[in-house]
Amino acid sequence: MCGYQEILTDPSYAGQVIVMTYPHIGNYGVNHADRESQKIHARALVVRELADFPSNFSSEESLEAAMVRHRVPCMSELDTRALTLAVRSAGSLRCTFLADQESPENGLRRIRAFDYGAIDFTAEASGAESTLLPQSKGGGRPRVAVLDFGVKYSILELLNDFCEIEVFSMASVGGLDLGRFDGFFLSNGPGDPAAVQGAVPLIRRMLATGAPLFGICLGHQLLALALGGRTYKLKFGHHGANHPIKNLMTGRVEITSQNHGYAVDPKSFSDPEIIPTHTNLNDGSLAGLMIKGRPVYSIQYHPEASPGPHDARYLFSRFREDLAGFRAGPRARRA
Fold it and tell me: What is the dihedral of CA 260, 242, 249, 184, to 10 degrees?
């Protein structure tokens, strides 16, 4: 019903066609304030009915005008709930749009040539928020290196509340001096974690510093790979703002926002110090992990939840406390 602008501009959706099951989309338009990056990252949008005349005090243009401006196709007048049932039955599907008079055979050739799992989409997704970065607040705050696989602007805003951030894409990490930082953040991003070249060795170097490390979504999956775990492709992924997650440490259930097509196999870890912390109540998949006795943890959902519920924002408070503890303890003794 809402949040379509945040979803379309979320870099995690690079390479994907989004199908909205709610029938009426675009009723409140779009605006600059609700962007999660500078552009629409989704390959296309499919809706039942596209609103012709948005009505909202903050609207700056219609959803259709934004799609045209970004040159991203949108298809309407489809039964999107039937399409959703087909995806849930068959699993995630490759698709293409046919231009006028184009033969179905051409479309099939495009589909067969496209291997989603073999493409590193982080190359196009990272750096998309560069002109939206929050202003430095200074004041001797903890310094955190954000490894950007397609980070959302709202995540950077929340981090900027309590630390100084420097954002690095995989293309800009050469010669990165890890010793300058009090902590590390592994961002969300699109695609198969196995296709992200160079991330695992770098994350292992980050772990060796002893500094706090927090990962979400793709960052969670890449941390798992760095710890010797395995990932696997979900049948149709987890998408939307209504997924129940149980915190195994507290017993509390959180309603969360999610967007990922891969998950971590909890049975793939040989180290008993790697502890599951959260589980997805819909399918029992691993939704969070930590290293026992260390400020290293990750989750398989979006704690910033833009759009979505804010049940999991406590994780940013935990990261802030761990940064402060590291600066007062190991970091201070090292200095």
Answer: 40
- Whether the Cβ atoms of residue 243 and residue 259 lie closer than 8 Å to each other: no
Please tell me the predicted confidence (pLDDT) of residue 128: 61
pLDDT score, position 14: 92
Alpha helices in 73-197 (DSSP H): 80-90, 104-113, 122-125, 153-160
- Residue with token string 């994780």: 315
**Domain boundaries 122-334, corresponding CATH code:** 3.40.50.880
Residues 6+ apart with CB under 8 A from 109: none
Q: Where are the beta strands (DSSP E) in the chain?
A: 17-19, 24-25, 44-46, 49-50, 74-75, 143-148, 164-169, 183-186, 213-216, 230-247, 253-265, 274-280, 286-291, 296-299
Partnered with residue 288 across adjacent β-strands are 278, 299
Give the right CATH number for 4-114 from 3.50.30.20, 3.40.50.300, 3.30.750.24, 3.40.50.880.
3.50.30.20
Model-wide pTM > 0.90: yes
Q: Where are the domains of the chain?
A: 4-114, 122-334
* pLDDT of amino acid 124: 84
Q: 4-114 and 122-334: same fold? A: no
| Tokens read off for 156 | 């950077």
Round to whole Å and give the CA distance between 270 and 100.
Answer: 54
Which one, of 224, 239, 249, lies nearest residue 307 by Cα?
239
The catalytic residues are 217, 302, 304
Which pLDDT does position 131 carry in this prediction? 57
C-beta atoms surrounding 131 within 10 Å: 8
pLDDT at position 306 is 82
Q: Give the Cα separation of 187 and 56 in Å (integer).
A: 32
End-to-end Cα, the chain, rounded Å: 52
- What is the per-residue pLDDT for 175? 78
pLDDT of res. 191: 92
Ranges under pLDDT 70 in the chain: 128-132, 331-335
Structure tokens given for 225 = 């790979």
pLDDT at 172: 86
- Check if the beta carbon of residue 306 is closer than 8 Å to that of residue 154: yes
